[in-house]
Specification:
Blueprint: H1 2-5, H2 7-27, E1 35-41, H3 64-83, E2 86-92, E3 95-96, H4 105-117, E4 124-126, E5 132-133, E6 136-137, H5 138-149, E7 156-159, E8 165-166, H6 167-177, E9 186-188, H7 206-212
Parallel strand pairs: 1-2, 2-7, 3-6, 4-9
Antiparallel strand pairs: 5-8
Length: 221
C-alpha cells in the first residue's frame, strides 16, 4: 500500500533500479562473468482472470509497486534475449519468516497478538480480511532461488505453495495458537485498505518443482 503514497520513489527503485544494474553489467563488459537474479513478485498478476497463476498467465498489476516490478520483469527478459545475459526472474509468491518487517500484515498480526496477550493492546486494526494470498516460508523460497541460479540456463520461474489462505484465516489460526478468539480483537479500519485491492493469488509452481526438483518443507501451519 505504501507505493500508492510514494509512486515516484517506487518507480525509481523498483523499475529504474533494475535497469541500472543491467546497464552496469553490460557497460563494464561483465556479461559472461555475471548471473543476475531479479526478485519478481506475484503482485504482477493483480486481479488475474485465472484462479491459479503460472508463467504464462497475463499480468494485471494493481499498484504502483506492481507496475514498477512489471517494468523490471520485462527489462530483464529484454536484456537476457538482446545481450545473452544470464538473468532470472523469480516470481515468488508471499513468503514469510521472523525477519518479515512490521509493515507487512503477517508480522503485524503476530506482534499485535503478543501485545494483546501482555495486555498492552486492546484491538488489532486491519484492512481487507478477505484478501487471499499464497503463503510460504522464506527458507524454502531462498532454497528455490539458489536452485534457479544454478540451473543450466536462465529463465522465469514461479515459487509458490499452490494454496491460498485469507487474512481472516491467518488471524484465526494465529490467535488460536495462544488460546484467543480473533473475533474478540480484530477490527477493520478503512485506512488500511488499498485504493485497488487484490482478491486472490494462487501460484502454479509445477515447472519449478519438476525442473529444479524443488518442494517446500514448511506448511502454512
Amino acid at each position: 500500500a505504501v507505493s500508492f503514497e510514494t509512486p515516484e520513489y517506487t518507480a525509481n527503485v523498483d523499475a529504474l533500479g533494475t535497469l541500472r544494474v543491467l546497464e552496469s553489467v553490460k557497460n563494464l563488459n561483465l556479461v559472461n562473468k555475471t548471473k543476475i537474479y531479479q526478485a519478481s513478485t506475484s503482485e504482477l498478476y493483480g486481479n488475474s482472470d485465472s484462479r491459479i497463476q503460472n508463467e504464462k498467465t497475463i499480468f494485471q498489476p494493481r499498484s504502483p509497486y506492481a507496475i514498477a516490478k512489471l517494468y523490471s520483469f520485462w527489462i530483464c527478459k529484454n536484456y537476457r534475449e538482446a545481450y545473452g545475459m544470464f538473468i532470472c526472474n523469480g516470481i515468488l509468491f508471499n513468503h514469510e519468516s521472523p525477519r518479515r518487517g512490521s509493515n507487512f500484515v503477517t508480522n503485524k498480526v503476530i506482534k499485535s497478538i503478543a501485545m494483546i496477550k501482555k495486555n498492552l493492546l486492546k484491538k488489532l486494526e486491519l484492512g481487507n480480511l478477505e484478501s487471499q494470498r499464497d503463503w510460504g516460508h522464506s527458507k524454502d523460497y531462498v532454497r528455490a532461488m539458489h536452485l534457479i541460479m544454478n540451473y543450466n540456463r536462465s529463465d522465469d520461474w514461479i515459487v509458490s505453495m499452490g494454496e491460498t489462505r485469507s487474512i481472516r484465516d491467518f488471524c484465526e489460526y494465529a490467535f488460536k495458537i495462544v488460546g484467543l478468539n480473533y473475533l474478540d480483537y480484530v477490527v477493520q479500519n478503512k485506512k488500511f485498505v488499498r485504493p485497488l485491492e487484490l482478491n486472490i493469488l494462487k501460484g502454479d509452481s509445477s515447472k519449478t518443482r519438476k525442473k529444479l526438483n524443488w518442494k517446500p518443507e514448511y506448511t502454512f501451519e
